[in-house]
Write a structure and sequence with these properties.
Length: 268
């Protein structure tokens, strides 16, 4: 599922980027990055966010990683380094990055809590981490029975096959970052409207089409019903909200802040 060998995977990744990039970039652009900032994007996909980060921090370096980097092969831009990397098993040295970003990654990992803790350890003093993942709770409350049925089938299929959590994980934000010793922890939610011809609708249809054989095999939704649902989503009058992109973030205290706090503790 979502294999980079799939003929529509590049189109699906670009549709997801077109849907999500504006809201992600709007929030990231509010943070001042230090000169020569070192940034990491985990699960860089088609590389659109890595390109944007490189433009935003000239003189710095953006490390764009994924388990399959074929769609990053053409990412020849000053300040961008492409690296094949599995965040579940491979490390970076502690304190390496001023910004760590992962979008639509942790929700699909069974080891998400342990991976998050390790990603936090990669932050340099004063660095920030930004995590964004989908939750399909809007589909469950849709007035459209087709959308509700599709949403439930997607959730069931991803849970059973990948160990994904696209229901409660992102819905719990920012709790996973609390207790990590970070400061300025926050969260926000962005819900895109799906239509038959916009980026969000295209990404959802391509994702459903990719999952169709597995949904049928696993008994979550027969192929015939899924095909009919895909045709239903292409109707010009179709419009709905099926998932929310929920983000959380936090910062590692700077060494100066740690020194001030330590001094205050001693004074008390």
């Amino acid at each position: 599922m979502f294999d980079f060998e799939h003929p529509s995977q590049r189109e699906r990744l670009h549709a997801l980027a077109a849907e999500c990039d504006p809201a992600t970039q709007d929030l990231l652009s509010r943070w001042e990055l230090p000169p020569g900032a070192r940034c990491l994007e985990v699960g860089a996909g088609a590389g659109t966010l890595a390109r944007w980060l490189a433009r935003r921090c000239p003189g710095g370096e953006v490390t764009a990683t994924d388990t399959d980097v074929r769609f990053l092969a053409g990412l020849r831009q000053p300040g961008v380094v492409v690296r094949r990397h599995d965040v579940r098993t491979e490390e970076f040295p502690p304190g390496t990055f001023d910004l760590v970003v992962a979008r639509s990654v942790l929700c699909h990992l069974r080891e998400r809590d342990a991976v998050l803790a390790r990603m936090v350890s990669w932050l340099a003093p004063g660095g920030r981490i930004y995590i964004e993942d989908p939750s399909f709770f809007p589909a469950a409350s849709s007035a459209d029975p087709v959308v509700r049925r599709l949403g439930a089938a997607i959730v069931g299929t991803l849970t059973a096959t990948l160990g994904s959590d696209v229901e409660t994980w992102a819905r719990s934000f920012p709790a996973p970052l609390l207790g990590q010793g970070l400061i300025d922890v926050g969260a926000r939610v962005h819900c895109a409207t799906l239509t038959s011809d916009n980026a969000a609708g295209t990404a959802w249809r391509l994702s459903v089409a990719d999952l169709l054989p597995v949904m049928d095999q696993r008994g979550f939704l027969p192929a015939a019903e899924t095909s009919a649902a895909l045709a239903y989503l292409r109707r010009p009058e179709f419009v709905d909200v099926v998932h929310a992109m929920i983000a959380m973030w936090g910062g590692r205290p700077s060494d100066r802040g740690r020194e001030r706090n330590h001094g205050a503790d001693e004074a008390r």
